[in-house]
Predict the structure.
Amino acid sequence: GAVVSQHPSRVICKSGTSVKIECRSLDFQATTMFWYRQFPKQSLMLMATSNEGSKATYEQGVEKDKFLINHASLTLSTLTVTSAHPEDSSFYICSARHDNEKLFFGSGTQLSVL
Amino acid sequence: QKEVEQDPGPLSVPEGAIVSLNCTYSNSAFQYFMWYRQYSRKGPELLMYTYSSGNKEDGRFTAQVDKSSKYISLFIRDSQPSDSATYLCAMISGTSYGKLTFGQGTILTVHP
């Protein structure tokens, strides 16, 4: 299957700082990428849809100014958690849409805000 | 009512057993059906992808789709301890532009 690389895999930061997470499709171009959040023992919750060259579409209840998404190229999307707080601690996962409707996921980023 | 219903389990089976995982859905617009396997603190891994009713086999895995009943299944033959993970069903409609609708996930443990 296609490969989606996500970095970092784990990050610990102080409250009030910003954290950037990268998602790259390594062997295909992805016009659409998705960002999810997952709490322990729960399914993935879609946060936003990232389209190359345009503004991201956020799901209801997701703060646009807090979770900044940039999709500057066909192989890279970034999620920046701004002014992170302990309640933002979670497992964040990206996925990239292949041209045949299949979605491939990154390995996830565990964010811990102290 | 959720669009996709999946029994969260947990499901515990002995090594070598046949595992049956199931999801039901209510949105008849769903056209593409996927099963993902997720290990703890890892991203989901695509196992099976189907878009038509019937069976699709890949090694020890068989995906079954019954669109008339809005029911999909994943069968795992000769289950192994390494199959212990959370299994997520997921679906896409033709107009969702790739947005997946997930089931809750079933936690599976295969014990030696």
Observations:
- Chain B has no helices and eleven strands.
- The first strand of chain B starts at residue 4 and ends at 6.
- The interface with chain A takes residues 32, 34, 36, 41-46, 49, 51, 88, 90, 92, 97-100, 102-105, 107 of chain B (CB under 8 Å).
